[in-house]
Amino acid sequence: MPHCIVEYTSNLGEDAQIRPLLKKLAAKFRDSEGVFPTGGIRVRAIRLDEYVVADGEADDAFVNVMVKIGSGRDPAFKERFFGEMFEMIKAHFEPVFETRSFALSMYVEEADKDGSYKENNIHARLKHQP
Amino acid sequence: MPHCIVEYTSNLGEDAQIRPLLKKLAAKFRDSEGVFPTGGIRVRAIRLDEYVVADGEADDAFVNVMVKIGSGRDPAFKERFFGEMFEMIKAHFEPVFETRSFALSMYVEEADKDGSYKENNIHARLKHQP
Amino acid sequence: MPHCIVEYTSNLGEDAQIRPLLKKLAAKFRDSEGVFPTGGIRVRAIRLDEYVVADGEADDAFVNVMVKIGSGRDPAFKERFFGEMFEMIKAHFEPVFETRSFALSMYVEEADKDGSYKENNIHARLKHQP
After folding, report:
1. Disulfide: which of A67, B44, B55, C18 matches A51 by Cβ 3.0-4.6 Å?
2. pLDDT tens column, A58-111
3. Residue A80 in contact with residue A123, Cβ under 8 Å?
4. Is the peptide bond before C2 cis (omega within 30 degrees of 0)?
5. Which residues 23-82 of A have a C-beta within 8 angstroms of B?
6. pLDDT of C66 over the 70 cut
7. What's the number of CA atoms in the CB half-sphere (13 Å) around residue B35?
8. CATH superfamily of B3-127
């Protein structure tokens, strides 16, 4: 944890700047005062090629960010942290909002602890780095 | 909201008629007596190229529809509306059911309000249209 | 049910052995003493081409398995069955763990019965087989 999936419609083309966005998202998770261990950060994008948005009449675009975190984080921390994250994402897409019809959304969910399984040797790599 | 993701196995080929299905789904959401604002409708498909179905012995196909809506809608409305939506999807795939082994499913979930973030200028486009 | 989605980063290449993994997962669901009917098993993979993992500095890889099952299964059964499933997945990726930085995770969720819809003629195919 955290897991973060960024869905984006292909009509955004180069304007989406998806790779830079994924980097910013991972950096934001790292900058969490240790709440999210670096070795658990997994951010990825899914490009959507088939979609219908709103009335289907215009070339509307959208981006949807789905975050899954472990349960039990402090509610005040979550509100502040993910509020900042969404402001960061909005800023990333400011040029898109200025030039086209666009819907941006983000959902943060907690994983059920009982149904969570993991094995990860990235933590070890990070620990042993100079 | 609503978000709607249609997963479909690639062995359906042209028989899936995915683009027409996405259009029907978006139209159904628009036809909701204002419960689902048009500007928030985002329907997309994900094509599956790697899968194993049932006993893995036949060329079985499946379609899975995942809907996410805002919380707090009337339970009776939801039961009626999504019952109608599933009947519509079943009718769409009637030719598929008649000719092959096929599993169809739909899941409707509500987003947790506390973890939901959005920014959308499509509503504004729709408002200012003639 | 069950639904099972395997996300994997494309940098795993042939080492992921995704097709064999999907087959093993489907076989494990079939080997559930009837808890999971064979006709409802739908296992698929989603290949990820755009991602940032951990500190973004190394060529880290990950696999994330998302399982959705019907509600109401016995907690002790779930703990045993999915514990075994995760051990099986770990064993599958043992060669990967030995050679690179890699994060493996699995999440098991129950679908809300009220929001679940299905139609499936694969059960009938299986019943009428010799």
Report:
1. B44
2. 899 999 999 999 999 999 999 999 999 999 999 999 999 999 999 999 999 999
3. no
4. yes
5. 46, 48-56, 58, 60, 62, 64, 67, 75, 78-79, 82
6. yes
7. 19
8. Macrophage Migration Inhibitory Factor (3.30.429.10)
Q: Residue A41: pLDDT above 80?
A: yes
Classified as helix, coil or strand, A28 is helix
| Average pLDDT taken over every residue of chain C | 96
Q: What is the ipTM of this complex?
A: 0.96
DSSP result, chain B: --EEEEEEEGGGGGGG-HHHHHHHHHHHHHSSTTSS-GGG-EEEEEEE-EEEETTSSS--EEEEEEEEE-TT--HHHHHHHHHHHHHHHHHHTHHHHHHS-EEEEEEEEEPPGGGEEEEESHHHHHHT--
Closest CA to B9 of B42, B43, B46: B46
In the three-class reduction of DSSP (H, G, I as helix; E, B as strand; rest coil), residue C99 is classed as: helix
- Interface contact flag, A121 C102, Cβ < 8 Å: yes
Distances (CA, A) of A71 to A111, A124, B51, C43: 6, 23, 30, 26
Partner residue facing B107 (CB), from C25, C26, C111: C111
Inter-residue contact C97 to A121 (CB < 8 Å):
yes
Question: Do B43 and B21 touch, CB atoms closer than 8 A?
Answer: no
The C-alpha angle B47, B48, B53, rounded to 5 degrees, equals 140
> Averaged over B96-105, what is the pLDDT?
97
First to last CA, chain B: 24
Q: Using CA atoms, how far apart are residues C12 and B130, in angstroms rounded to an integer? A: 52
Q: Is the overall model pTM greater than 0.95, yes or no?
A: yes
Write down the residue that tokens 């909701």 correspond to: B32
Say if residue C130's pLDDT is above 70: no
Q: Is the peptide bond before C37 cis (omega within 30 degrees of 0)?
A: no
Amino acid at C93: F
Tokens of B5: 């993701």
Mean pLDDT of C11-40: 97
Whether the bond between B2 and the residue before it is cis, its omega within 30 degrees of 0, is: yes
Touching subunits of B (3+ CB pairs, under 8 Å) are: A, C
Q: In chain A, what are the domain boundaries?
A: 3-127
- Using a CB-CB cut-off of 8 Å, the residues of chain A touching B3 are 64, 105
Question: Using alpha carbons only, how large is chain A's radius of gyration in Å?
Answer: 16
CA distance linking residue C115 with residue B79, whole number of Å = 8
